[in-house]
Specification:
By secondary structure, this protein is an alpha/beta fold. About 35% of the residues lie in helices and about 20% in strands. It is built from eleven helices and 14 strands. An eight-stranded parallel beta barrel has the order 3-4-5-8-9-10-11-14, surrounded by five helices. Strands 1-2 form a two-stranded antiparallel sheet. Strands 6-7 form a two-stranded antiparallel sheet. A hairpin with a 4-residue loop joins strand 1 and strand 2. Helix 4 crosses helix 5, helix 6 runs parallel beside helix 7 and helix 8 runs antiparallel to helix 11.
């Protein structure tokens, strides 16, 4: 697949972690192909992954949590014949056969049958078992990056179990890099300062609407040579539209009137500069030197093409100070 305009942008690879990995500025978030919110069939999921890889997207992020393993299985199958891609998955939620009392469907946002269930486990043994199971689903003998996933209520367990285990695996060459993926910057900043991780995935906290990670996480990452992948850049939907309307979601809940007003002010500034709010949302994180790539969820080849079109050319430089003033 060839789309004029984004080839040069994707070719501008950036170092990721300290192990020699490089990634394009736009990456594939695979939660959507795990049936996040709505079901995607196998063919559509495969087409999305292959369209992304064919276009030059070379970093794909998944997790056992996404669709109770469905995302990993689909991603592995779609990339089975591909080389030169960077894969990341996550640890902290082990999957085990569901108990008889489990609900018939998943209760955490994925349109899948709950034939397995998630169990929090940040122990060394849990990390090793999780990675082994992920490799089976991915159909691979190694994964490049492993993140400790959402340890908000498990700080001590992650520090005592997960991070030492991942550090050992990195020293052994089993993985290239490790880090943590969270929706908050405060605990991520602690991990950056108190462990030897070399990559983090921050979701929703460094966006055109929420720049809070710039106060703690991003300076720490620059200081410690830690690479940042920015996810959730649309804050779950409110900035995916050029004209945010009532009913839009912000951080997976209905946006308040105050947040909606801010989003609409930013959208008006974008229009005045001849661009759109989603265009600015994709490019904003990439302006920070700690951020190496933006992860966007993609569930179809059409969504891949739309996201690539947003990457194709940056907004005008004059946009950014005006957006800052409009916050």
């Amino acid at each position: 697949m060839t789309v004029t305009g984004y080839d040069a942008a994707l070719a501008a690879s950036r170092p990721f972690g300290r192990g020699g990995l490089t990634v394009a500025p736009l990456s594939f978030g695979a939660a959507a192909i795990g049936n996040l919110f709505t079901a995607v069939d196998d063919a559509e999921a495969t087409a999305a992954v292959r369209a992304a890889a064919d276009a030059g997207i070379d970093y794909f992020d998944t997790a056992p949590h996404y669709g109770l393993g469905l995302s990993e299985s689909r991603l592995g199958a779609a990339l089975r014949d591909r080389t030169g891609v960077v894969l990341s998955t996550k640890v902290g939620r082990l999957l085990r056969p569901a108990s008889e009392s489990s609900a018939p469907g998943d209760t955490e946002g994925f349109a899948v049958a709950a034939d397995v269930e998630r169990v929090w486990d940040f122990s060394r043994d849990g990390v090793l078992r999780s990675i082994e199971s992920s490799l089976e689903r991915l159909g691979r003998d190694r994964v490049d990056v492993v993140y400790v996933h959402d340890p908000d209520d498990h700080f001590a367990e992650a520090m005592d179990g997960a991070f030492p285990a991942l550090d050992e695996l990195r020293r052994q060459g089993v993985i290239t890099s490790y880090g943590a993926g969270m929706n908050q910057s405060a605990m991520l900043t602690r991990f950056v300062r108190e462990t030897d991780l070399d990559a983090v995935l921050i979701a929703g906290r460094y966006t055109v609407l929420d720049r809070s990670a710039a106060d703690d996480l991003l300076p720490a990452c620059l200081e410690r040579d830690v690479s940042v992948a920015a996810g959730g850049v649309f804050n779950s939907g409110i900035t995916v539209s050029a004209d945010p309307r009532p009913g839009a979601t912000y951080d997976y809940a209905p946006a308040t009137l105050e947040v909606l007003d801010r989003a609409r002010r930013l959208a008006a500034v974008c229009r005045a500069h001849g661009t759109t709010l989603p265009h600015a949302a994709v490019h904003f994180p990439l302006r920070h030197p700690a951020v190496r790539t933006v992860l966007l969820g993609m569930r179809s080849a059409d969504e891949v093409r739309a996201d690539l079109a947003l990457l194709a050319a940056p907004p005008p430089d004059a946009l950014w100070p005006d957006l800052e003033a409009a916050l």
